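User: Just a sanity check before I run the rest of the batch. Below are the structure tokens for the first item. I only need the designed sequence back.
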């Protein structure tokens, strides 16, 4: 059994739209993958502003953006297919862009209408992967553990450092997963105050001074004591994190938050006695952050080739689309907390 799929991922840190075209093969009940083509399309200032401000829109404006962003995604896929002369695409799986994430209130919203993607490309599209899980009592996140389970089982754990960091690993025969803490969603914001899109190599953080009072407040937040499964959203950032950082210089915020993230990530690796962990996501390029994590844990940190660092999430959403096409389980209740394993995503 073989499938060729395109996965689309737009993360909370607004680094850009990741597009991954991959081949998936199932032999003897084992899945294998190969990334064939992939690229990241940076958001223009126009789209960065629109997506960043989406949480503040009224209902009419949000529905309009949902449609407009769907056509944006469809157009980017159309260009991607043309650029690489792709003539064998079985499906497009789109994560969309998260605006609201409130699983306790039974809703989550990823904008980018998949019907618009289908209209422009005339290829089956799967989208809205999270809503069903939330309606079933789950967190709707993290979703990538199904890929970690079926594609990356040689590692004790898989840890992604993006806008938010998350981890998945086996415990007592079940794969559990949860968000650990915010990372790039905070760091990129304060790097922008210093004229950069992100804190390259952690240079700003390295030059700053850790504010230990703020660090203590961050590390004492109740979220870190709550049990898994659990997930984070921008609402929590705005209400809980940003007020603690007010009045401090951008360099010192970056120094402090890097130390906070390193502590939280290492704490999880140590707590669950993780031996060998795969690191992916944009935060993996922050050499100072990685240095601080290694200072706090003896776990073996595996940093793969650039292609997997950048596109693992888009790859797994493509894979989730393949599973959805085959009516196979693509969300694990042990990871999200929903009432049962299930097959999710709207297929059109």
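Assistant: Here's the designed sequence for the first item:
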């Amino acid at each position: 059994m073989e499938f060729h799929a395109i996965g689309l991922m737009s993360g909370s840190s607004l680094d850009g739209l990741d597009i991954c075209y991959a081949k998936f093969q199932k032999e003897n009940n084992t899945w294998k993958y190969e990334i064939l083509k992939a690229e990241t399309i940076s958001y223009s200032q126009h789209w960065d502003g629109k997506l960043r401000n989406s949480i503040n829109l009224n209902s009419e404006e949000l529905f309009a953006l949902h449609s407009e962003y769907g056509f944006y995604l469809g157009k980017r896929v159309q260009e991607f297919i043309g650029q690489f002369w792709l003539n064998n695409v079985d499906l497009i799986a789109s994560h969309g862009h998260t605006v609201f994430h409130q699983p306790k209130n039974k809703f989550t919203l990823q904008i980018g209408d998949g019907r618009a993607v289908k209209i422009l490309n005339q290829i089956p599209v799967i989208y809205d992967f999270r809503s069903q899980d939330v309606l079933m009592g789950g967190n709707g996140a993290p979703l990538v553990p199904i890929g970690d389970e079926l594609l990356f089982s040689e590692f004790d754990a898989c840890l992604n450092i993006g806008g938010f960091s998350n981890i998945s690993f086996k415990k007592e025969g079940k794969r559990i997963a949860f968000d650990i803490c915010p990372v790039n969603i905070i760091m990129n914001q304060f790097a922008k105050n210093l004229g950069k899109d992100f804190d390259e190599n952690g240079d700003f953080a390295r030059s700053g001074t850790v504010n230990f009072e703020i660090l203590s407040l961050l590390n004492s937040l109740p979220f870190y004591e709550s049990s898994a499964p659990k997930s984070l959203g921008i609402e929590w950032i705005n209400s809980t994190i940003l007020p603690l950082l007010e009045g401090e210089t951008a360099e010192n915020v970056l120094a402090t938050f890097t130390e906070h993230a390193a502590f939280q990530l290492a704490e999880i690796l140590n707590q669950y006695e993780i031996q060998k962990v795969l690191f992916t996501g944009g935060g993996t390029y922050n050499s100072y952050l990685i240095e601080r994590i290694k200072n706090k844990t003896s776990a073996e940190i595996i940093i793969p080739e650039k292609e997997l660092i950048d596109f693992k999430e888009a790859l797994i959403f493509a894979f989730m689309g393949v599973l959805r096409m085959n009516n196979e389980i693509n969300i694990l209740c042990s990871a999200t907390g929903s009432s049962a394993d299930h097959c999710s995503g709207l297929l059109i």
